[in-house]
Design brief:
The protein is an alpha+beta fold. It folds into 3 domains: 8-45 and 151-256 and 410-433, Roll (Nuclear Transport Factor 2, Chain: A), CATH 3.10.450; 62-145, Nuclear Transport Factor 2, Chain: A; 268-385, Glucose Permease (Domain IIA) (Distorted Sandwich), CATH 2.70.70.10. It has 8 helices and 24 strands. Strands 12, 15, 17, 18, 19, 21, 23 and 24 form an 8-stranded antiparallel sheet that branches. The two termini are 35 Å apart. 30% of the residues are buried. Residues 1-6, 21-55 and 419-435 have low confidence and may be disordered. The protein binds zinc ion. Residues 271, 288, 290, 292, 371 line the site of zinc ion (ZN).
Protein backbone atom coordinates (compact mmCIF):
# COMPACT_ATOMS: atom_id res chain seq x y z
CA UNK A 1 0.00 0.00 0.00
CA UNK A 2 2.65 2.42 0.94
CA UNK A 3 5.36 2.85 -1.55
CA UNK A 4 7.87 5.01 0.17
CA UNK A 5 10.94 4.01 -1.75
CA UNK A 6 13.36 6.88 -1.66
CA UNK A 7 16.27 7.81 -3.78
CA UNK A 8 19.36 9.29 -2.19
CA UNK A 9 18.24 12.86 -2.67
CA UNK A 10 14.82 12.32 -1.15
CA UNK A 11 16.41 10.48 1.70
CA UNK A 12 18.74 13.39 2.27
CA UNK A 13 15.86 15.83 2.50
CA UNK A 14 14.02 13.58 4.85
CA UNK A 15 17.11 13.50 7.00
CA UNK A 16 17.33 17.28 6.89
CA UNK A 17 13.71 17.56 7.78
CA UNK A 18 14.21 15.32 10.75
CA UNK A 19 17.22 17.29 11.88
CA UNK A 20 15.14 20.48 11.82
CA UNK A 21 12.17 19.02 13.57
CA UNK A 22 13.95 17.06 16.22
CA UNK A 23 14.02 19.19 19.33
CA UNK A 24 17.09 18.28 21.28
CA UNK A 25 17.38 20.74 24.08
CA UNK A 26 16.48 24.26 24.86
CA UNK A 27 19.88 25.75 25.44
CA UNK A 28 21.29 29.18 26.03
CA UNK A 29 23.39 30.87 23.43
CA UNK A 30 26.52 30.75 25.50
CA UNK A 31 28.97 29.98 22.80
CA UNK A 32 28.80 31.59 19.43
CA UNK A 33 31.08 30.48 16.69
CA UNK A 34 32.04 33.12 14.25
CA UNK A 35 31.27 32.20 10.67
CA UNK A 36 33.72 29.48 10.00
CA UNK A 37 34.12 29.49 6.33
CA UNK A 38 37.76 29.41 5.53
CA UNK A 39 39.10 28.34 2.23
CA UNK A 40 42.57 27.09 1.77
CA UNK A 41 44.16 26.23 -1.47
CA UNK A 42 43.93 22.62 -2.34
CA UNK A 43 46.90 20.35 -1.72
CA UNK A 44 47.19 19.87 -5.42
CA UNK A 45 49.91 22.07 -6.95
CA UNK A 46 48.33 22.14 -10.37
CA UNK A 47 45.18 23.51 -8.81
CA UNK A 48 47.16 26.24 -7.07
CA UNK A 49 48.64 27.27 -10.38
CA UNK A 50 45.15 27.61 -11.81
CA UNK A 51 44.10 29.66 -8.80
CA UNK A 52 46.88 32.18 -9.35
CA UNK A 53 45.86 32.94 -12.91
CA UNK A 54 43.71 36.04 -13.25
CA UNK A 55 40.10 35.02 -13.29
CA UNK A 56 38.30 36.14 -16.41
CA UNK A 57 34.62 35.61 -16.24
CA UNK A 58 32.66 35.71 -19.43
CA UNK A 59 29.66 37.98 -19.69
CA UNK A 60 26.28 36.71 -20.84
CA UNK A 61 24.38 39.95 -21.35
CA UNK A 62 21.25 38.55 -23.02
CA UNK A 63 18.38 36.53 -21.59
CA UNK A 64 15.42 34.73 -23.05
CA UNK A 65 12.59 36.92 -21.78
CA UNK A 66 9.64 35.48 -19.87
CA UNK A 67 6.74 34.74 -22.19
CA UNK A 68 9.04 34.94 -25.15
CA UNK A 69 10.65 32.24 -27.28
CA UNK A 70 14.24 31.98 -28.38
CA UNK A 71 13.02 32.79 -31.89
CA UNK A 72 11.44 36.11 -30.88
CA UNK A 73 14.33 37.03 -28.62
CA UNK A 74 16.96 36.38 -31.29
CA UNK A 75 14.95 38.05 -34.04
CA UNK A 76 14.79 41.20 -31.93
CA UNK A 77 18.58 41.05 -31.65
CA UNK A 78 18.98 40.97 -35.41
CA UNK A 79 19.38 37.26 -36.09
CA UNK A 80 17.50 36.03 -39.13
CA UNK A 81 15.03 33.16 -39.11
CA UNK A 82 17.12 30.82 -41.26
CA UNK A 83 20.07 31.13 -38.91
CA UNK A 84 17.84 30.46 -35.91
CA UNK A 85 16.56 27.19 -37.40
CA UNK A 86 20.14 26.20 -38.24
CA UNK A 87 21.13 26.86 -34.62
CA UNK A 88 18.26 24.77 -33.27
CA UNK A 89 19.14 21.95 -35.69
CA UNK A 90 22.86 22.01 -34.88
CA UNK A 91 22.24 22.04 -31.12
CA UNK A 92 19.84 19.08 -31.23
CA UNK A 93 22.29 16.33 -30.21
CA UNK A 94 23.18 18.33 -27.08
CA UNK A 95 20.20 20.49 -26.23
CA UNK A 96 16.69 21.25 -27.42
CA UNK A 97 16.82 25.00 -28.04
CA UNK A 98 13.24 25.10 -29.32
CA UNK A 99 12.09 24.47 -25.77
CA UNK A 100 14.48 26.83 -24.06
CA UNK A 101 13.13 28.14 -20.79
CA UNK A 102 13.00 31.89 -20.16
CA UNK A 103 15.83 33.31 -18.12
CA UNK A 104 18.62 31.37 -19.81
CA UNK A 105 21.52 33.74 -20.39
CA UNK A 106 23.40 33.85 -23.65
CA UNK A 107 25.95 35.92 -25.53
CA UNK A 108 26.23 36.67 -29.23
CA UNK A 109 29.24 37.36 -31.39
CA UNK A 110 28.77 39.04 -34.75
CA UNK A 111 31.22 39.41 -37.60
CA UNK A 112 32.77 42.81 -38.17
CA UNK A 113 32.05 44.97 -41.16
CA UNK A 114 29.12 46.50 -42.94
CA UNK A 115 26.71 43.58 -42.70
CA UNK A 116 27.46 41.86 -39.43
CA UNK A 117 26.27 38.28 -39.28
CA UNK A 118 26.11 35.97 -36.29
CA UNK A 119 29.30 33.94 -35.86
CA UNK A 120 28.94 32.44 -32.44
CA UNK A 121 26.38 32.05 -29.68
CA UNK A 122 26.90 30.66 -26.20
CA UNK A 123 24.15 29.58 -23.82
CA UNK A 124 24.83 29.45 -20.13
CA UNK A 125 22.45 26.91 -18.58
CA UNK A 126 24.47 26.90 -15.36
CA UNK A 127 28.04 27.73 -14.33
CA UNK A 128 29.05 24.23 -15.35
CA UNK A 129 26.79 23.77 -18.34
CA UNK A 130 27.63 26.04 -21.26
CA UNK A 131 26.74 25.30 -24.86
CA UNK A 132 28.64 26.92 -27.69
CA UNK A 133 27.48 27.14 -31.31
CA UNK A 134 29.93 28.50 -33.84
CA UNK A 135 29.87 28.92 -37.56
CA UNK A 136 32.66 27.41 -39.64
CA UNK A 137 34.20 29.12 -42.65
CA UNK A 138 31.98 26.98 -44.84
CA UNK A 139 28.96 28.43 -43.02
CA UNK A 140 28.09 25.27 -41.06
CA UNK A 141 26.98 25.52 -37.43
CA UNK A 142 28.62 23.24 -34.93
CA UNK A 143 27.57 22.75 -31.31
CA UNK A 144 30.01 21.93 -28.52
CA UNK A 145 29.81 21.68 -24.78
CA UNK A 146 32.23 24.21 -23.28
CA UNK A 147 34.80 22.65 -20.97
CA UNK A 148 34.46 24.71 -17.81
CA UNK A 149 37.59 24.71 -15.64
CA UNK A 150 36.47 23.62 -12.20
CA UNK A 151 38.77 24.33 -9.35
CA UNK A 152 38.51 22.48 -6.07
CA UNK A 153 39.34 24.21 -2.82
CA UNK A 154 38.95 22.93 0.70
CA UNK A 155 36.42 24.64 2.95
CA UNK A 156 36.22 23.99 6.66
CA UNK A 157 33.46 24.38 9.22
CA UNK A 158 33.19 23.80 12.92
CA UNK A 159 30.46 24.20 15.43
CA UNK A 160 29.18 23.42 18.85
CA UNK A 161 25.73 22.26 19.77
CA UNK A 162 23.77 24.57 22.01
CA UNK A 163 20.31 23.45 20.98
CA UNK A 164 20.54 21.16 17.96
CA UNK A 165 22.98 19.98 15.34
CA UNK A 166 20.95 21.87 12.76
CA UNK A 167 21.20 25.10 14.75
CA UNK A 168 24.93 24.71 15.24
CA UNK A 169 25.40 24.31 11.49
CA UNK A 170 23.43 27.47 10.79
CA UNK A 171 25.52 29.26 13.38
CA UNK A 172 28.61 28.08 11.53
CA UNK A 173 27.15 29.40 8.28
CA UNK A 174 27.22 25.95 6.77
CA UNK A 175 25.04 24.66 3.94
CA UNK A 176 22.34 22.41 5.50
CA UNK A 177 23.10 19.75 2.90
CA UNK A 178 26.45 19.25 4.57
CA UNK A 179 24.75 18.71 7.92
CA UNK A 180 22.94 15.77 6.39
CA UNK A 181 26.20 14.45 4.92
CA UNK A 182 27.88 14.73 8.31
CA UNK A 183 25.00 12.88 9.98
CA UNK A 184 25.16 10.19 7.34
CA UNK A 185 28.89 9.59 7.82
CA UNK A 186 28.41 8.96 11.55
CA UNK A 187 25.00 7.29 11.28
CA UNK A 188 26.36 4.04 12.70
CA UNK A 189 28.02 5.72 15.69
CA UNK A 190 25.49 8.34 16.70
CA UNK A 191 21.74 8.37 16.49
CA UNK A 192 21.36 12.02 15.53
CA UNK A 193 17.67 12.00 16.40
CA UNK A 194 18.23 10.95 20.00
CA UNK A 195 21.83 11.17 21.07
CA UNK A 196 22.91 14.73 20.28
CA UNK A 197 23.88 16.58 23.46
CA UNK A 198 24.61 20.15 24.49
CA UNK A 199 28.35 20.80 24.14
CA UNK A 200 28.72 18.22 21.38
CA UNK A 201 31.10 19.69 18.86
CA UNK A 202 32.02 18.92 15.34
CA UNK A 203 34.38 20.01 12.60
CA UNK A 204 34.82 19.02 9.02
CA UNK A 205 36.68 19.76 5.82
CA UNK A 206 34.92 19.54 2.50
CA UNK A 207 35.74 20.00 -1.14
CA UNK A 208 34.19 23.09 -2.64
CA UNK A 209 33.94 23.30 -6.39
CA UNK A 210 34.63 26.70 -7.88
CA UNK A 211 34.23 28.18 -11.31
CA UNK A 212 35.87 31.54 -11.96
CA UNK A 213 36.31 32.02 -8.24
CA UNK A 214 32.66 31.44 -7.46
CA UNK A 215 31.33 28.42 -5.59
CA UNK A 216 29.21 26.12 -7.74
CA UNK A 217 28.73 23.13 -5.49
CA UNK A 218 30.17 20.73 -2.98
CA UNK A 219 32.45 17.79 -3.47
CA UNK A 220 33.07 15.23 -0.75
CA UNK A 221 33.56 15.71 2.96
CA UNK A 222 37.26 14.85 3.32
CA UNK A 223 37.50 14.49 7.07
CA UNK A 224 35.07 14.93 9.91
CA UNK A 225 35.04 14.75 13.66
CA UNK A 226 32.09 14.61 16.00
CA UNK A 227 32.47 14.72 19.76
CA UNK A 228 29.32 13.21 21.22
CA UNK A 229 28.83 13.34 24.98
CA UNK A 230 32.60 13.49 25.41
CA UNK A 231 33.34 10.64 23.04
CA UNK A 232 35.27 11.51 19.86
CA UNK A 233 34.44 9.96 16.51
CA UNK A 234 36.59 10.61 13.46
CA UNK A 235 36.15 9.80 9.83
CA UNK A 236 38.39 10.29 6.82
CA UNK A 237 37.57 9.69 3.21
CA UNK A 238 39.76 7.06 1.60
CA UNK A 239 40.23 7.40 -2.13
CA UNK A 240 42.20 5.37 -4.61
CA UNK A 241 42.91 6.76 -8.08
CA UNK A 242 40.20 9.35 -7.54
CA UNK A 243 37.59 6.72 -6.65
CA UNK A 244 35.96 6.79 -3.23
CA UNK A 245 36.49 3.63 -1.23
CA UNK A 246 34.63 4.94 1.80
CA UNK A 247 34.89 6.62 5.16
CA UNK A 248 37.06 4.98 7.77
CA UNK A 249 38.24 5.71 11.26
CA UNK A 250 41.92 6.80 11.42
CA UNK A 251 42.93 3.27 12.48
CA UNK A 252 41.45 1.92 9.26
CA UNK A 253 38.38 0.36 10.84
CA UNK A 254 35.06 0.82 9.11
CA UNK A 255 32.56 3.34 10.42
CA UNK A 256 29.79 1.12 9.22
CA UNK A 257 28.56 -1.63 11.45
CA UNK A 258 27.19 -4.97 10.52
CA UNK A 259 23.88 -3.72 11.91
CA UNK A 260 22.15 -0.36 11.80
CA UNK A 261 21.50 1.23 15.17
CA UNK A 262 17.78 1.25 14.52
CA UNK A 263 15.32 -0.27 12.02
CA UNK A 264 13.47 3.05 11.93
CA UNK A 265 15.15 6.30 11.07
CA UNK A 266 13.46 8.64 13.49
CA UNK A 267 11.37 6.52 15.78
CA UNK A 268 11.18 7.13 19.49
CA UNK A 269 11.80 4.16 21.73
CA UNK A 270 8.58 3.64 23.63
CA UNK A 271 9.41 0.44 25.42
CA UNK A 272 12.76 -1.15 26.11
CA UNK A 273 13.87 -4.73 26.38
CA UNK A 274 12.93 -6.20 29.72
CA UNK A 275 12.77 -9.69 31.15
CA UNK A 276 9.77 -8.55 33.20
CA UNK A 277 7.13 -6.01 32.21
CA UNK A 278 3.43 -5.42 32.75
CA UNK A 279 1.69 -6.14 29.46
CA UNK A 280 -0.77 -3.31 28.60
CA UNK A 281 -3.28 -5.59 26.87
CA UNK A 282 -2.90 -8.91 28.60
CA UNK A 283 -2.68 -7.13 32.03
CA UNK A 284 -0.11 -9.57 33.30
CA UNK A 285 3.58 -9.40 33.99
CA UNK A 286 5.28 -10.64 30.93
CA UNK A 287 8.79 -10.18 29.62
CA UNK A 288 9.24 -7.72 26.77
CA UNK A 289 11.89 -9.40 24.70
CA UNK A 290 12.30 -6.66 22.15
CA UNK A 291 12.35 -2.92 21.69
CA UNK A 292 9.29 -0.88 20.70
CA UNK A 293 9.58 2.14 18.46
CA UNK A 294 6.63 4.50 18.38
CA UNK A 295 6.24 5.89 14.88
CA UNK A 296 3.46 6.95 12.55
CA UNK A 297 1.64 4.26 10.64
CA UNK A 298 3.35 3.76 7.28
CA UNK A 299 6.84 4.74 8.50
CA UNK A 300 9.33 2.58 6.55
CA UNK A 301 10.98 -0.23 8.50
CA UNK A 302 14.50 -1.13 7.38
CA UNK A 303 16.44 -4.34 7.52
CA UNK A 304 19.17 -3.64 10.09
CA UNK A 305 21.60 -5.84 8.18
CA UNK A 306 22.03 -7.95 5.05
CA UNK A 307 20.31 -11.29 5.21
CA UNK A 308 17.63 -13.64 4.02
CA UNK A 309 13.91 -13.37 4.76
CA UNK A 310 12.82 -16.43 6.68
CA UNK A 311 9.27 -15.27 7.41
CA UNK A 312 6.97 -12.60 5.94
CA UNK A 313 3.32 -13.16 6.88
CA UNK A 314 0.80 -12.80 9.69
CA UNK A 315 1.92 -14.44 12.90
CA UNK A 316 -0.47 -14.48 15.89
CA UNK A 317 -0.13 -11.59 18.36
CA UNK A 318 2.81 -10.22 16.37
CA UNK A 319 0.54 -9.42 13.45
CA UNK A 320 2.33 -8.95 10.15
CA UNK A 321 5.84 -10.13 10.87
CA UNK A 322 9.12 -10.19 8.97
CA UNK A 323 12.03 -12.28 10.17
CA UNK A 324 15.55 -12.06 8.76
CA UNK A 325 18.43 -14.45 9.18
CA UNK A 326 21.62 -12.37 8.93
CA UNK A 327 24.17 -15.11 9.45
CA UNK A 328 24.65 -18.19 11.56
CA UNK A 329 24.56 -16.10 14.75
CA UNK A 330 22.11 -13.22 14.27
CA UNK A 331 18.44 -13.08 13.44
CA UNK A 332 15.99 -10.15 13.68
CA UNK A 333 12.19 -9.86 13.73
CA UNK A 334 9.89 -6.93 12.95
CA UNK A 335 6.27 -7.05 14.13
CA UNK A 336 2.85 -5.33 13.93
CA UNK A 337 3.61 -4.13 10.37
CA UNK A 338 0.83 -2.51 8.36
CA UNK A 339 2.27 -4.01 5.19
CA UNK A 340 5.35 -5.54 3.63
CA UNK A 341 8.02 -3.92 1.49
CA UNK A 342 8.15 -4.53 -2.22
CA UNK A 343 9.26 -8.05 -3.05
CA UNK A 344 9.59 -9.05 0.61
CA UNK A 345 8.87 -12.78 0.65
CA UNK A 346 10.27 -15.80 2.38
CA UNK A 347 13.56 -16.84 0.79
CA UNK A 348 14.39 -13.40 -0.60
CA UNK A 349 17.74 -11.77 0.09
CA UNK A 350 17.70 -8.25 1.57
CA UNK A 351 20.32 -5.55 1.90
CA UNK A 352 21.04 -3.47 4.98
CA UNK A 353 18.71 -0.46 4.99
CA UNK A 354 16.26 -2.01 2.56
CA UNK A 355 12.61 -1.31 3.34
CA UNK A 356 11.02 -4.57 4.46
CA UNK A 357 7.70 -3.22 5.70
CA UNK A 358 5.81 -0.32 7.23
CA UNK A 359 4.86 0.51 10.79
CA UNK A 360 1.34 -0.55 11.71
CA UNK A 361 -0.70 -1.94 14.54
CA UNK A 362 -1.59 -5.46 13.41
CA UNK A 363 -1.83 -8.29 15.94
CA UNK A 364 -1.86 -7.63 19.68
CA UNK A 365 -1.02 -3.93 19.70
CA UNK A 366 -2.37 -0.77 21.33
CA UNK A 367 -1.33 1.62 18.54
CA UNK A 368 1.06 2.01 15.63
CA UNK A 369 4.54 0.93 16.65
CA UNK A 370 7.28 -1.43 15.62
CA UNK A 371 8.20 -4.29 17.87
CA UNK A 372 11.78 -5.21 17.03
CA UNK A 373 13.56 -8.36 18.22
CA UNK A 374 17.15 -9.45 18.05
CA UNK A 375 18.31 -13.01 18.43
CA UNK A 376 21.85 -14.10 19.05
CA UNK A 377 22.45 -17.82 18.61
CA UNK A 378 18.71 -18.41 18.93
CA UNK A 379 18.25 -16.40 22.15
CA UNK A 380 16.58 -13.02 22.61
CA UNK A 381 19.06 -10.24 23.31
CA UNK A 382 18.64 -6.52 23.92
CA UNK A 383 19.72 -4.85 20.66
CA UNK A 384 20.41 -1.58 22.49
CA UNK A 385 22.83 -3.29 24.80
CA UNK A 386 24.95 -4.86 22.06
CA UNK A 387 28.11 -3.56 20.49
CA UNK A 388 28.07 -4.98 17.06
CA UNK A 389 31.20 -5.67 15.06
CA UNK A 390 32.34 -3.26 12.35
CA UNK A 391 31.90 -3.90 8.68
CA UNK A 392 35.05 -4.54 6.64
CA UNK A 393 38.07 -2.34 7.49
CA UNK A 394 40.54 -0.93 4.96
CA UNK A 395 41.80 -4.02 3.09
CA UNK A 396 45.25 -5.12 4.23
CA UNK A 397 46.72 -4.52 0.78
CA UNK A 398 45.58 -0.90 0.80
CA UNK A 399 46.53 -0.01 4.35
CA UNK A 400 49.83 1.60 3.33
CA UNK A 401 48.03 3.87 0.87
CA UNK A 402 45.41 4.73 3.48
CA UNK A 403 48.10 5.58 6.05
CA UNK A 404 49.91 7.75 3.52
CA UNK A 405 46.77 9.83 2.90
CA UNK A 406 45.79 10.05 6.54
CA UNK A 407 48.01 12.93 7.82
CA UNK A 408 46.89 15.23 5.03
CA UNK A 409 43.24 14.41 5.59
CA UNK A 410 43.42 14.96 9.33
CA UNK A 411 45.39 18.18 8.82
CA UNK A 412 42.60 19.50 6.60
CA UNK A 413 40.31 19.79 9.64
CA UNK A 414 40.01 23.28 11.12
CA UNK A 415 41.61 23.95 14.48
CA UNK A 416 39.57 24.32 17.61
CA UNK A 417 39.82 27.54 19.57
CA UNK A 418 40.56 27.09 23.24
CA UNK A 419 37.11 26.30 24.51
CA UNK A 420 37.92 25.45 28.08
CA UNK A 421 36.41 28.75 29.22
CA UNK A 422 33.25 28.56 27.20
CA UNK A 423 32.31 25.00 28.08
CA UNK A 424 29.62 24.57 30.63
CA UNK A 425 27.84 21.68 32.23
CA UNK A 426 24.37 20.94 30.87
CA UNK A 427 21.59 21.89 33.23
CA UNK A 428 19.89 19.07 35.13
CA UNK A 429 16.68 19.15 33.12
CA UNK A 430 18.69 18.93 29.92
CA UNK A 431 20.43 15.87 31.17
CA UNK A 432 17.24 14.10 32.06
CA UNK A 433 15.54 15.10 28.83
CA UNK A 434 18.24 13.33 26.91
CA UNK A 435 17.68 10.03 28.60
ZN1 LIG B 1 7.04 -4.72 21.86
Amino acid sequence: MYSLRMNRKQYKWLLLFALILTPFFVGFGYYATSPNFETQSSQNEATDAVAEKPVIEEVYPNKVKPGSSLYTTLTELGVDGVTISQLVEAAKPLSDLSRLRPGVAFQLQFSEGENPSLEQIKFKFSSLDILKLSKSEAGEWKATQVDVPVETVVATYKGMVSSSLWESAIEADMDPNLTADLAEIFAWQIDFAREVRVNDRWRLSVERRMVHGKPVGWGKILAAEYVNAGETYRAVLFQENGEDIGYFAPDGSSLKRIFLKSPIKYGRISSRFSRRRFHPILKVNRPHLGVDYAAARGTPVRAVGDGEITYAARRGGGGNTVMIRHNSVYKTAYKHLSGFGKGIRRGKKVKQGQIIGYVGSTGLSTGPHLHFEFYRSGRFVDPLGQTFPSADPVPAGKMALFKSQLPQMVASLPQWPDMSLSMREPREEEKSKGL
